[in-house]
């Protein structure tokens, strides 16, 4: 079987048998597309051996691919080869004895400055006013406010916040059910009274407008809000708040996690809140809290105490 044909079959198999998000499927297909471009779509899959794999990894490394992307390329290819092996299209596993030695990427996440965050929230909170019937006066702008507030309060990804269903919300219990990467479910909490009120007002307004679809958030056409639209809304909100720096949904997630670290929250709880499969993914936030580290060291002032006259 040619590689191009095998790739098509593998992606179809992933779609049918694996409970993966469309984004994850596209990522796997993109990795295999890169492999196909490198070795040729007409290559017979039975000729894929250790040398072919090592050559591909070296080729990708030479293009300046990041450590994270290189590691994902290798992971995607391992899954593909395992599928070929299970179907008898490969006699042996070509990955046996192959180790992809790449440094762990430590690119620090970008955060929203505290002053910028305050200005953004002050600007957005103006749209939370309700009329005499308790309905939001500016529901479409309130959609942006609610999404931003949810991402900051819970560390949700943009795909998770736009994918939130009305049935995922338990107002009396102050909880939200989130379906994250790999279809993994987790529970987060609405502990803030203002947030609780905003969600309640939004749900009431949503019903009054005749919105009937399952996703919580809606756009100006009363249709489900998309991730791309949410990114655009956030960019507009940042400009209207007078911010010069670019603000993205993922920066809100990073900011939420970092603030929790600085508040002294155990990293294992933050891992659960963010939906990270591995604690090592969450640990990067311990490297971005330089301000908190400086404050702690300054307060301790070990040298100053040692130099004090006795």
What share of the residues lie within helices? Answer: 55-70%
* Tally of helical segments: 14
Number of β-strand runs:
3
Share of residues in strands? under 5%
CATH topology of the largest domain: hpI Integrase, Chain A
Alpha-beta content class: mainly alpha
Radius of gyration: 24 Å
Pattern of helices and strands:
HHHHHHHEEEHHHHHHH
**3D shape:** elongated
- Average predicted confidence as pLDDT: 85
Low-confidence stretches: none
Protein name: Tyrosine-type recombinase/integrase
Domain Core-binding (CB): 1-85
Pfam family, one: Phage_integrase
Organism: Solirubrobacter phytolaccae
Concise overview:
The protein has 310 residues and is mainly alpha-helical. The chain contains 14 helices and three strands. The chain is elongated and about 70 Å long.
Describe this structure in words.
- This protein folds into 2 domains: 3-86, DNA polymerase, domain 1; 114-251, Orthogonal Bundle (hpI Integrase, Chain A).
- The chain is elongated.
- It has a 3-stranded antiparallel sheet with strand order 1-2-3, with no helix packed on it.
- The chain has 14 helices and 3 strands.
- The chain has 310 residues and is mainly alpha-helical.
- Residues 107-298 form the Tyr recombinase domain.
Topology at a glance:
Blueprint: H1 3-17, H2 22-39, H3 50-62, H4 67-86, H5 114-125, H6 139-154, H7 158-162, E1 169-170, E2 175-179, E3 185-189, H8 193-208, H9 227-240, H10 249-262, H11 267-274, H12 279-282, H13 290-300, H14 302-307
Antiparallel strand pairs: 1-2, 2-3
Helix pairs in contact: 1-2, 2-4, 6-8, 6-10
């Amino acid at each position: 079987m040619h590689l191009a044909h095998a790739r098509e079959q593998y992606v179809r198999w992933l779609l049918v048998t694996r409970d993966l998000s469309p984004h994850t499927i596209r990522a796997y297909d993109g990795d295999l597309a890169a492999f196909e471009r490198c070795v040729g779509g007409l290559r017979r899959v039975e000729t894929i051996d250790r040398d072919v794999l090592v050559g591909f990894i070296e080729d990708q490394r030479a293009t300046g691919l990041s450590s994270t992307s290189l590691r994902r390329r290798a992971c995607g290819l391992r899954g593909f080869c395992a599928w070929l092996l299970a179907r008898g299209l490969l006699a042996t596993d070509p990955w046996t004895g192959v180790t992809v030695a790449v440094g762990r990427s430590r690119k620090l996440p970008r955060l929203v400055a505290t002053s910028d965050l305050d200005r953004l929230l002050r600007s957005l909170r103006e749209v939370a006013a309700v009329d005499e019937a308790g309905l939001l006066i500016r529901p479409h702008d309130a959609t942006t406010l609610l999404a931003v507030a949810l991402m900051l309060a819970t560390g949700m990804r943009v795909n998770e916040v736009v994918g939130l269903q009305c049935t995922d919300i338990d107002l009396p219990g102050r909880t939200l059910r989130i379906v994250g990467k790999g279809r993994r479910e987790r529970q987060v909490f609405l502990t803030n009274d203002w947030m609780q009120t905003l969600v309640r007002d939004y749900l009431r307004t949503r019903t009054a407008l005749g919105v009937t679809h399952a996703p919580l958030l809606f756009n100006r056409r009363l249709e489900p809000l998309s991730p791309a639209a949410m990114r655009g809304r956030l960019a507009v909100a940042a400009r209207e708040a007078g911010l010069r720096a670019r603000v993205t949904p993922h920066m809100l997630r990073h900011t939420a996690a970092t603030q929790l670290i600085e508040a002294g929250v155990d990293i294992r709880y933050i891992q659960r809140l963010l939906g990270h499969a591995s604690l090592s993914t969450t640990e990067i936030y311990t490297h971005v809290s330089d301000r908190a580290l400086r404050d702690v060291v300054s307060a301790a002032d070990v040298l100053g105490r040692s130099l004090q006259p006795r």
